[in-house]
Write the structure tokens for this entry.
Amino acid sequence: MAPSQKIFPFNGSVTKRTEAPRCLPLSTPLKKYKSMNEIMETAPYAVIDRDYSDVGCQECGSGDRAEEMLLCDKCDKGFHMFCLRPIVVRVPIGSWICPPCSGHNRLRRFPLKQTKIVDFFRIQKCSDTPDKCASPQDNGKRRRRCRTLVMYKKRRRLVPFHPAEDPKQRLQQMGSLATALTALHMEFSNDLTYMPGMAPRSANQASFEKGGMQVLCKEDAETLENCRAMCRRGEWPPLLVVFDPCEGFTVEADSHIKDMTLITEYTGDVDYIKNREHDDCDSMMTLLLAKGPSNSLVICPDKRGNIARFINGINNHTPEGRKKQNLKCVRYNVSGECRVLLVAIRDIAKGERLYYDYNGYEHEYPTHHFV
């Protein structure tokens, strides 16, 4: 072998020149991409810090009282809770959209057809025309006339409401209530309702009340049942539900209402207070303050209720607000159960709006921003 020749070791295979080259596959296999969940698990979070110290209220222009200012989750503009109309009493739970961004549609008026009204309120049709409502105290007054003045002691009793005599006017009144209920996606209920998962009816016992509860006498209990029977027949209190841009839905008298008239009973779903501690509903009503706080009950008219849901409260921090009060809210022991009644405390003229104090003796409800 010539010295210039070098030997290189070769461990590979030998390919003949006449062998055809290997063909590549016609389509390459698809590349496997990561799922969106895998990407989001490993992707860093982008946090954008914004200083909201310079945000002012869009209504009053002031940036003070930041603890009572709501920020819209859509436009990031600020609004004081007491500058909004209607006023927002509690900080809403979850997201909140300001009125300009929410784009509320105009309220649709409930169709004033008798058949629709009857179906909506489940009015019981009566073949005979009921007599005009008479107070159970009328017979008592006749009996007292023969008594001497020494034996007679005047006691203030509840009197039933007097429905409008004109059927068209009553239809107008019921239609206004139906409009307000449908606008809030509520069902009409003139009774306390006990839903699964909430407080049972057995929890509503007046004997659980701390310190006792005022017992509704026999005559007033008859007045309550008389008013409930009239409502079932479609004879409603002379009340109209109207919409005010400042107060929202509110109730006004459609005719003269006498002092001590039973206006309505506060109705809705009954639940334990402990289950509603973080609820942002602004219309909950205390039903039972039990000796054990875990047994206390409230009425929640967020899904079911009646006209009591739309009667507004006064600002009990100002003399002008206290002057507007013409109703009182009283909790009674009715046949062993707690019930809440709204009663007129003075004569109410036609067109006057109805107001009562949201705070009984508890003074826990914030009313200092009420109009």
Notes: The first strand starts at residue 69 and ends at 71.
